[in-house]
């Protein structure tokens, strides 16, 4: 399972201040720390970017790429900012992402075709709501895949995000089971291997106590690995979760096992 | 996932000495500690029992039942000892177990019919070897199920053990993936829900370092939970693994989630 850090995001006050002040150092410090913690790709979430969206996005991408060769996932619903990121980046960029919501379908998805790049597709309803169960997600997956194929892109460019919700929701455990089922069922539904990504942090939103949060996040990460998840979006400073994912990867990937490969 | 302790076994010198000296106290102390650690059933493994097999087995069962109401899994290849356990026990007993090996098929399986009890069936070849892959295990599963059905017992009495091997084996990770696949596929193969049990300790046999062992055991336990495993046979004093399994059970079972239910 590939480790995608969610840590470069505008909700972190240090990142917000650095973006507002166009100061690359705190951002680059975060990039280095994420890489040291095990990140294999970096999600860049600049928030809504209501002002100077393109210029800010270009600044962010340049700041990050100056200190890393890791692939970047550009995590914004702002099409102009997304386009700016794609034009600025010199390394690998993944669009994160589109859904059946009209604004994203009409203005984000075409950027993947234009730049021939990977794109994450969320299993959300056209109204932006989370489907209630596995069947609801599969219905959205089929429609999303159809819309994606109309771009002419190779299916290997699509990464499905089944959309995690908090366990504490009324149907939270049912949703968590639905996500596992959907990841398992997608290859049969599409008729070929399907790339998938899931955001772990949503699961434990509202957790009472950090030990419980990390226990649950790690346990569910292993369940996702068992279901065949390709990419986990997470707080890479959750060292326990990172260790669990590495242990799972040693089991799920082909090739011999060695105890020395474990952290 | 039900927690079955493997801790009452003859390879523990204290248990061996207690059995030889017919001293129930050390055995009963272990039973209490297992229950406190979270055991929901107790595997009783008295070894080959070359002398006084029936009398020793009866002593063990009486000693254990004097201090617990937990179900017992009687883990011996000795048919006379197994019969003695079934005759002695007043509470729930599971036979652990049979396979396509002629001796077990001919002398252990009939005891399940005779006592109308649950029985564990190992996915081993008739020569006692571990199948090489998932297909090999499914082939044995079909033959084992056929033999089981000939007893006339209800299919709900059969618990399939897909047989874990050490990750450190040359094909160890392939085998670990095969076990997950088989647990997932059995309901389709048999055409109804299938009860399953797996022994976790074999997986980490030969581990270098206890932290690595517990990390890997916990991660794989969660993968087994994701695959739908019903019962985990493990060292219940591995508190980290027990915590992971409890977190998984909160996710896999129907009903609302509460952070307060977690250890």
Describe this structure in words.
Two copies of one chain form a homodimer. With 263 residues, chain A is α/β, with parallel strands linked by helices. The first copy, chain A, contains ten helices and eight strands. Chains A and B meet through α8, α9 and α10 of A and α8, α9 and α10 of B.
Task: Describe the structure concisely.
The structure is a homodimer of 263-residue chains. Chain A has 263 residues and is α/β, with parallel strands linked by helices.
Oligomer: homodimer
N-to-C SSE string of chain A, H for helix and E for strand: EHHEHEHEHHEHEHEHEH
What integer value in Å does the Rg of chain A equal?
Answer: 18 Å
Instruction: Output the structural class of chain A.
Output: alpha/beta
Largest interface: A-B, 44 and 44 residues
Please report the number of helical segments of chain A: 10
Secondary structure tally: strands of chain A? 8
Shape, principal axes of CA atoms of chain A: globular
Biggest sheet of chain A: strands, sense, closure? Answer: 8 strands, parallel, barrel
- State the helical fraction of chain A: 40-55%
Question: If you average the pLDDT of chain A, what whole number results?
Answer: 96
Main-sheet strand order of chain A equals 1-2-3-4-5-6-7-8
Strand content of chain A: 15-25%
Low-confidence runs of at least 5 consecutive residues of chain A = none
Distance between the termini of chain A: 15 Å
């Amino acid at each position: 399972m590939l480790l995608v850090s969610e840590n470069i995001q505008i909700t972190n006050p240090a990142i917000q201040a650095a973006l507002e002040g166009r100061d690359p150092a705190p951002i680059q410090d975060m990039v280095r720390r994420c890489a040291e913690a095990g990140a294999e790709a970096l999600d860049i979430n600049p928030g809504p970017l209501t002002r100077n969206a393109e210029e800010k996005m270009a600044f962010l991408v340049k700041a990050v790429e100056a200190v890393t060769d890791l692939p970047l996932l550009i995590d914004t619903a702002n099409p102009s900012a997304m386009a700016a990121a794609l034009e600025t980046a010199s390394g690998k960029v993944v669009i994160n992402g589109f859904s059946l919501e009209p604004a994203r379908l009409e203005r984000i998805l075409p950027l993947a075709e234009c730049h021939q790049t990977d794109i994450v597709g969320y299993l959300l309803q056209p109204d932006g709501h989370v489907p209630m169960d596995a069947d609801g997600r599969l219905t959205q997956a089929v429609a999303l895949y159809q819309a994606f194929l109309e771009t002419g892109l190779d299916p290997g460019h699509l990464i499905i995000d089944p959309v995690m919700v908090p366990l504490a929701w009324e149907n939270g455990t049912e949703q968590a089971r639905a996500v596992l089922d959907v990841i398992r069922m997608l290859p049969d539904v599409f008729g070929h291997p399907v790339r998938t990504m899931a955001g772990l942090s949503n699961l434990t939103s509202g957790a009472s106590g950090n030990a419980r949060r990390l226990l649950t996040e790690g346990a569910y990460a292993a369940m996702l690995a068992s279901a065949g998840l390709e990419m986990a979006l997470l707080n890479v400073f959750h060292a326990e979760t990172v260790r669990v994912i590495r242990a799972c990867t040693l089991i799920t990937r082909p090739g011999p096992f060695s105890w020395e490969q474990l952290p």
